[in-house]
């Protein structure tokens, strides 16, 4: 009995990977083995960096809040500590937006916690 190979499924699998590799440079876009490795690596990076992005944004917000707080004579840690003590529940994303785009509102918060 001849060997049965599901070439339809194999072709579909390869087409899916080659579609992901569209736009890559050099042989990564049109040679199956190279494209497969490139797409696999890209998927790993995208999975990892969806988590890294959250860390990066939190770090950016903290930097912005620190800069805003220091303009009013306070360090970041003092500011956050006093926010907690005064039961002001604003997250870092909102505080960073206020520090960047609405400095008068941020100043009001700093004055309230001082």
> Major sheet: size, sense and barrel closure?
none
Number of domains: 1
- H and E order: HHHHH
Cα-to-Cα separation, first versus last residue: 85 Å
**SS content category:** mainly alpha
CATH superfamily grouping? Ribosomal protein L20, C-terminal domain
Q: According to CATH, what is the class?
A: Mainly Alpha
CATH T-level topology: c-terminal domain of poly(a) binding protein
Strand content: under 5%
The number of E-state strands comes to: 0
Mean model confidence by pLDDT: 96
> What is the share of helical residues?
over 70%
* Alpha plus pi helix count: 5
User: What ranges have pLDDT less than 50 throughout 5 or more consecutive residues?
Assistant: none
Our Rg estimate from Cα atoms comes to 26 Å
The CATH architecture can be named as: Orthogonal Bundle
Question: How does the overall form come out from the CA principal axes?
Answer: rod-shaped
Question: What's the layout of helices and strands?
Answer:
Blueprint: H1 7-20, H2 32-71, H3 76-85, H4 92-101, H5 103-113
What does this structure look like?
- The protein starts with 6 loop residues before the first helix and ends with a helix.
- The protein has one domain (8-113): Orthogonal Bundle (c-terminal domain of poly(a) binding protein).
- Helices cover 75% and strands 0% of the residues.
- With 114 residues, the chain is mostly helical.
- The mean pLDDT is 96.
- The protein is built from 5 helices and no strands.
């Amino acid at each position: 009995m001849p060997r049965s190979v599901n070439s339809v499924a194999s072709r579909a699998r390869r087409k899916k990977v080659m579609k992901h590799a569209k736009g890559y440079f050099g042989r990564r876009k049109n040679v199956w083995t190279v494209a497969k490795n490139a797409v696999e690596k890209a998927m790993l990076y995208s999975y990892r960096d969806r988590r890294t992005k959250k860390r990066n944004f939190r770090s950016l917000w903290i930097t912005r809040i620190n800069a805003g707080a220091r303009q009013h004579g306070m360090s970041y840690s003092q500011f956050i500590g006093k926010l907690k003590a005064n039961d002001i529940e604003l997250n870092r994303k909102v505080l960073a937006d206020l520090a960047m785009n609405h400095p008068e509102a941020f100043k009001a918060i700093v004055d309230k916690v001082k």
